[in-house]
């Protein structure tokens, strides 16, 4: 669904979701009207390096105030994909385990 068609509590996915600072995540996934995951999609030739990881993590930590959230100021799940590979990171672990460095894992 396009972001201009979004009605709170009515969708499961928004394409090109508007984030704080007028940036856009490629997709936001919702459960029961609350944002649960950010998906950053890139072209196949993009290696999904540190810049893309930082971009997606930034989206997860800067949701719009009008998005329903499960956790305060946090969309907990982050995915990176390029058509060849996909990575996942659970951002909740940084809250639950603040002294442990959490990395993206291949899915």
UniProtKB/TrEMBL annotation:
This is Type I restriction enzyme R protein N terminus (HSDR_N). It comes from Eubacterium ruminantium.
